[in-house]
Write a structure and sequence with these properties.
BED-type domain-containing protein, 9-stranded parallel β-sheet, single chain, 27% helix, metal-binding
Length: 1319
């Protein structure tokens, strides 16, 4: 029987998925239930009360709603299957049922596993106690067998829900008792391991008694349902799904189905010439899951949009319409970093700089604000930033009211998809990879199910993903005929029933628990895959009975299933194609929260009334509030997960004794108290404080159940007895430590360890590299440092890296080791460190062998290798053979100062193993960087080294080439000149290089290359399309031969051009106007530059949006560039607040402003003193000195810089003396990589220590020896300093000379994140 037409449609006109009131004339989304709300005068859910409805109609609507509410209340105990088709349940009822759902399979399975372990592993127990354990197992299995049916009946049977609630309380209490028993067992294992006690284990009588009390309590629970008729069944604990299932085809959340006309309409409107408002606002309005965000993404990524707008930004707004937060998110969307310390005015200034030049498009996704004042505040800011016409804002919202408040254009109401479109989405996801054959029967059933999606693409995606795990026709029929479809509203505005159906179809109950748990993360939260799986593991959701499966394997499988079914979406991958994070759709998050409402709380203020049932708490407080003392009076003893910002340890940890997961983050100082040892059940400890030091107490080594330790911040060090944590599986420590820091002693005892990001080798037993050998489960990524302590090949082999599935490996020798340390053979050590064949990324640093071992670049073994970085291998005389690695995409070689020629060894092995009629060399390489190859004179082409009949294709996919400080290199191989895929080229400090890639050979000839007897050659160029790489879009040329400038004209497809350090150029050439695609032009440090090309040439640059001329003191001309939207000329001389600049080789100093507040000095190895020219800089507040390796003492006149507050010294190897006693305002002293000075500053008997009593904060090599750095300037962040070690006699140490490191130009942003049009 179908639904009858609701009588209230007599008072409204039906408009697709909307209705128009016959009385007030307004239209709203929805169906009959919302008509009643509108007429009854009940606002909310995008509905406002009707102001023209007759009284009798209003009373009728009100009476109908009251009757419905009464029916909902009375129907609580009715079974789901008894609900008649003609009376669909309200959303309130459905959500109430979902909130009541209790799933206990995981905790019952966990208790069974623990009891089984006690009964079988502890032979010293009394026989009577073992009998009690066996009897307890019998009770537990009885509960397990009836649990499935009980959970199915809970939504329709109130008594069953009450029984499950009671069982839950007793089960979790039993879990804690048994876990405490296990903890005591682990304690005794550690004591035996440390030889602190005999092999005999003695357990607390108190704990034994508590274990004995479990069975009577569970027997009583079981007896309560003895007459309920529960069926006995056993759910599979692990789904029969391949761990290697390929879910990549299911990861596209933006199916382009049925929205072609919507995209075309919005794009045309946004770029229309009639769109001449300063800010035009375009609302996209529709119900949840209809595809508003997907449509906005398709518009945002449209090529016409990219070409039309200068700046594109995206902000997810959500419930909280915070203007300052939106402005910060705009900056983050544009690649800005380090925003946390900026004041609101500074945020506004940056927004004005970025948005003020050209036209911008801003997407505000999921706007819920209905307060016009907040919108007016945001709009006022944006108008202040940019008063030009043509700026656009697209908002997505569920609310018509929001659309009405913010609109300038009429809202675009997103219509539902057709039934065929829904089937198209479902079919694509269901029949992926031929897992299920598409039969005629299945298609008929599938199309019927697609109709039930109600035109909502999210429903089609989730249903399609769910059904790809249903292989049988009868399962499809069960879905088609499920009674839950009767719960749908007529307008399908409530998608919870569809989500409930799909959730029930998930393969295991534990998977449902994993999904519901994720409600603890806020909306739009980027859920890190490893973190989520480790939380599931800590909660005990991932039990496995398969001998060959790790707990993490189950977690990976569950995560992939939730992605495949679209319960998770927006999957993000790393450079190695590993999925690293995802998000949840807002509607799906609402649903997850509804089914875990009794157990999960997201708190946004320091107040909670009753915490007795809460198991998972996310305290998301603002920066001014901490999780405070009010919690000391709240019962949180059942809390198992606590995620808190700005946690206050004045709260007694005894309130949280059942915690399994503890994550703390924020900006307050974090020093864990010794009392953390009370958290004996803790499995996961995550501390995330990015800007302060984290201190771990020794008592943390008593958390014997701990599985995961994640620290993000400045870690003071790891406790020495970390090896006591025998259950530890993952150590995620993100620290920038010095090379002489060792990892804790006896790491080999952590035999469960799978993740260890850092290992510092020591010279003593317990610290040697042999400790890694016992860690047979180690996988993922690791950096091994201090390799100079490894004596020989045999000791290196003891690490057994070849047996460990490590995909990212870093091998580091210390940069500052003394010459006598070279007694060890680096070549033999590296040979012994051969990694696993699954290797994808390899970094080798400060290796001092003359050649690389044979395994480096071995294509037959390392066919998965994607990235290689070889740095400061200064003794190497030849590059390794890498040309035949089939997947190599990124290759960086820096600091091989003794390599004179790149020859055949670079491309292929000498044994002829490459030989074929046609050979691809570097077949997948995308990025190639060579730097500081100071002896490199010749780079041969592969074709020069082969016979005539062999055909080679070299670098067929190369997109980015960087050459830096190759002072002697004259020519590039022919394969680079014929490379047609090149998009980005950077050439710095290559003074002898005669040509750029792609320049015709006839142009590359110099006078000495002409055939004998010829003085000159006249020639006519062929068409430009045949003489240059048409794909080259970005070019940076700095401090090279002046003749290279003229070669730029052959790259007419350029979109970004950076010219730097050509001091002799007085005017830019006329051919610049031929670069018709140019969008951004940067002219830097051209001292004699006065003129641009003629006005006619500049006018031909019709696509030019940005022109920046920087550090060109003679340039004056402006009239010819008035048509360019964003122009800056020598802007560093006019900055209002901090006047800053950087220079190398101490040049052009007198042209700068002596009133600068910040000064950055980049020196060189030959400099042994600071230049006297900086004495007049009396206003300096911050001074940073780097790479003065010949300087032994700072000059005495430094004491005259009376305003100096911060002094930073980096890479000054001989520096010993600091005349800073008279710098009374100095608050911060930072020293790094200054070995002589470091010793004199930490030994209190030395004179330098006596110079420092007035300095509050002293940091040496990332460690504070005094105070905290609470007032660091953002612009002088320590992460800026960098050195690459080379031979002082041959070249400079500094990574960057002259003004390469200039903060103001933000070079990395321009080259890494700059938006350029693709057309």
């Amino acid at each position: 029987m179908g639904r009858q037409r609701d009588q209230f449609w007599d008072y409204a006109e039906k408009l697709n998925d909307r209705f128009k009131c016959n009385y007030c004339g307004r239209d709203f989304p929805g169906g009959a239930s919302r008509i009643k709300a509108h007429l009854a005068g009940v606002p909310g859910h995008d509905i406002v009360a009707c102001n023209a409805v007759p009284q009798d109609v209003q009373e009728k609507a009100q009476a109908t709603r009251k009757k419905r509410e009464a029916q909902v209340t009375q129907g609580t105990n009715k079974k789901l299957k008894s609900v008649p088709n003609s009376t669909p349940k309200s959303k309130t009822k459905v959500e109430e049922e979902y909130r009541a759902e209790i799933i206990l399979n995981d905790v019952v399975d966990r208790i069974i596993a623990n009891v089984s372990s006690l009964a079988t592993e502890h032979i010293d127990f009394d026989l009577s106690f073992k009998v009690e354990l066996i009897n307890l197992l019998e009770t537990l299995f009885k509960i397990k067998f009836v649990l499935g049916d009980a959970q199915k009946r809970q939504s329709s049977d109130e008594s069953m829900r009450i029984w499950l609630t009671n069982l839950r309380d007793e089960a979790y209490d039993a879990d804690n008792v048994l876990d405490k028993f296990s903890y005591e067992s682990f304690l005794q294992k550690v004591q035996i391991q440390n030889q602190m006690m005999d092999q005999v284990c003695n357990f607390s009588l108190c704990n034994l008694d508590k274990v004995k009390k479990i069975k009577p309590l569970l027997d009583k629970i079981l007896n309560d349902v003895a007459d309920s008729g529960l069926r006995m069944e056993l759910a599979n604990s692990i789904p029969k799904i391949s761990l290697g299932m390929n879910i990549d085809p299911l990861l596209n959340d933006s199916e382009f189905v049925g929205r072609k006309q919507d995209i075309k309409k919005i794009v045309n409107l946004l770029i229309s010439s009639s769109n001449q408002h300063v800010i035009s606002v375009f609302p996209i309005v529709g119900m949840a899951g209809i595809g508003k965000t997907t449509l906005a993404e398709l518009v945002y990524n449209n090529e016409l949009i990219k070409k039309h707008f200068d700046v594109l930004a995206w902000v997810n707004v959500g419930k909280n319409f915070d203007v300052e937060g939106i402005l910060r998110d705009i900056l983050k969307s544009l690649g800005e970093e380090e925003l946390d310390d900026l004041e609101y005015d500074e945020v506004r200034e940056r927004c004005a700089e970025i948005l003020g030049g050209g036209k911008y498009l801003l997407i505000l996704d999921d706007v819920q604000n209905e307060d016009p004042k907040k919108w007016d505040t945001l709009k006022g800011n944006l108008l202040e930033f940019n008063s030009n016409t043509g700026n656009n804002i697209v908002i997505t919202t569920r609310s018509d009211n929001v659309g009405q408040i913010m609109k300038i254009h009429p809202p675009h109401h997103l219509e539902k998809l057709s039934k065929d479109d829904c089937w198209s989405i479902m079919k694509k996801r269901t029949f992926i990879d031929g897992r299920i054959p598409l039969t005629l029967d299945l298609e008929v059933i599938g199309r019927e199910i697609a109709k039930r999606c109600g035109g909502v693409p999210l429903a089609a995606r989730i249903l399609g993903g769910t059904m790809c795990f249903q292989f049988e026709k009868n399962k499809w029929l069960e879905i088609q005929n499920n009674k839950i479809w009767d719960l749908l509203e007529e307008d399908n505005s409530d998608m919870f029933p569809v989500l409930k159906l799909c959730l029930d179809l998930l393969p295991t109950p534990s998977l449902k628990r994993c999904f519901a748990y994720c409600a603890i993360f806020p909306k739009d939260y980027d859920m890190k895959k490893d973190e989520v799986i480790q939380c599931w593991m800590a909660e005990g959701f991932l039990l496995t009975k398969e001998a060959n499966m790790e707990t993490e394997d189950i977690g990976n499988m569950y995560f992939n299933i939730l992605l495949a079914t679209s319960f998770f979406q927006n999957a993000r991958k790393d450079a190695y194609c590993n999925i690293i994070s995802c998000k949840m759709h807002d509607l799906v998050h609402d649903f997850a929260l509804s089914i875990s409402k009794f157990e999960t709380l997201i708190l946004e203020e320091d107040s909670v009334d009753d915490g007795s049932s809460i198991q998972h708490l996310f305290a998301r407080l603002d920066g001014k509030t901490t999780l405070g003392s009010s919690f000391s009076e709240v019962d949180l003893t059942k809390l198992r997960t606590l995620i808190s910002k700005n946690f206050n340890f004045d709260i007694m940890l005894s309130n949280f004794k059942c915690l399994r997961v503890l994550k703390l983050f924020g900006d307050s100082i974090i020093e864990l108290p010794d009392s953390i040892e009370q958290l004996i059940h803790l499995r996961l400890l995550h501390i995330s404080y990015s800007k302060i030091e984290v201190l771990l107490p020794k008592s943390i080594t008593k958390l014997y159940n701990l599985q995961t330790l994640r620290i993000e911040g400045f870690l003071h060090g790891l406790p020495e007895d970390l090896s006591n944590l025998i259950n530890l599986r993952h150590i995620h420590i993100y620290w920038d430590c010095d090379y002489d820091i060792k990892t804790p002693k006896n790491m080999s005892m952590l035999t469960c360890l799978q993740t260890l990001l850092f290992f510092g080798v020591g010279s003593e037993d317990g610290y040697r590299i042999t400790e890694l050998g016992a860690l047979k489960n180690l996988k993922g990524e690791i950096e091994i440092k201090n390799l100079e302590y490894v004596k020989d090949e045999e000791e290196a082999k003891s690490a057994k890296l070849k047996e460990k599935e490590i995909f990212k490996l870093g091998l580091y020798w210390s940069f500052d080791r003394e010459e006598e340390d070279d007694m060890y053979d680096d070549e033999k050590v590296l040979e012994g460190l051969q990694p696993h064949p699954n290797l994808k990324s390899l970094t080798i640093y400060e290796y001092r062998g003359k050649k690389f071992p044979s395994w480096v670049g071995l294509s037959s073994l390392y066919h998965n290798l994607i990235e290689i970085s070889l740095r400061s291998c200064r003794e190497c005389e030849e590059v390794p053979t890498l040309g035949q690695l089939p997947c190599l995409r990124v290759l960086e070689i820096y600091g091989m100062g003794k390599v004179r020629c790149i020859g055949s060894e670079f491309y292929f092995y000498s044994d002829g193993s490459y030989r074929n009629t046609t050979t691809l060399l570097f077949p997948a390489l995308r990025r190639l960087k060579l730097g500081w190859m100071v002896s490199l004179e010749e780079w041969k082409d592969a074709k020069e080294l082969t016979t005539v009949d062999e055909v080679f294709f070299v670098f067929p996919c190369l997109e980015e080439l960087t050459l830096r400080s190759c002072y002697k290199l004259r020519d590039l191989p022919e394969s680079l000149h014929t490379c047609v895929s090149l998009q980005k080229l950077v050439v710095l400090d290559c003074p002898k290089l005669r040509s750029l890639p792609g320049v015709p050979s006839i142009i590359r000839w110099g006078i000495e290359d002409l055939p004998s007897g010829l003085q000159c050659i006249e020639y006519r160029l062929p068409s430009t399309s045949s003489i240059h790489p048409p794909s080259l879009q970005k070019l940076k040329l700095a401090r090279c031969d002046y003749l290279l400038l003229d070669q730029i004209q052959y790259f007419i497809a350029l979109k970004i051009l950076w010219i730097q350090g050509f001091h002799e150029i007085g005017a830019l050439p006329e051919w610049l106007g031929n670069l018709s695609s140019l969008q951004r032009l940067y002219i830097v440090n051209c001292q004699d530059l006065v003129h641009l090309p003629t006005e006619e040439a500049m006018r031909r640059l019709t696509q030019l949006k940005t022109l920046i001329i920087y550090c060109c003191p003679r340039f004056e001309e402006r009239i010819k560039i008035s048509h360019v939207p964003w122009v800056e000329i020598n802007a560093e001389l006019t900055q209002k607040d901090s006047k800053k600049f950087a220079f190398g080789k101490i040049i052009n100093l007198m042209t700068t402003d002596a009133q600068a507040l910040q000064l950055l000095l980049h020196g060189s190895p030959a400099l042994n003193s600071l230049p006297n020219e900086i004495q007049p800089f009396s206003a300096l507040e911050e001074l940073k000195i780097q790479n003065f390796n010949g300087m032994e003492a700072l000059p005495n006149w430094l004491g005259n810089l009376s305003c100096l507050q911060k002094l930073s010294l980096y890479y000054c190897k001989k520096l010993m003396y600091l005349p800073i006693l008279h710098l009374t305002d100095l608050k911060h002293l930072h020293i790094a990589r200054c070995p002589n000075l470091e010793k004199r500053c930490v030994e209190e008997s030395r004179a330098e220590w006596l110079q420092m009593p007035h300095i509050r904060n002293i940091k040496i090599n990332e460690k504070y020896i005094k105070g905290k750095d609470s007032e660091d300037s953002e612009d002088f962040d320590d992460s800026e300093y960098e050195e690459v070690e080379y031979d002082d006699s041959e070249y400079e140490e500094s990574d960057d000379s002259e003004d390469d490191r200039d903060d103001y130009l933000q070079e990395d942003y321009i080259w890494g994140n700059d938006q350029v049009d693709d057309n």
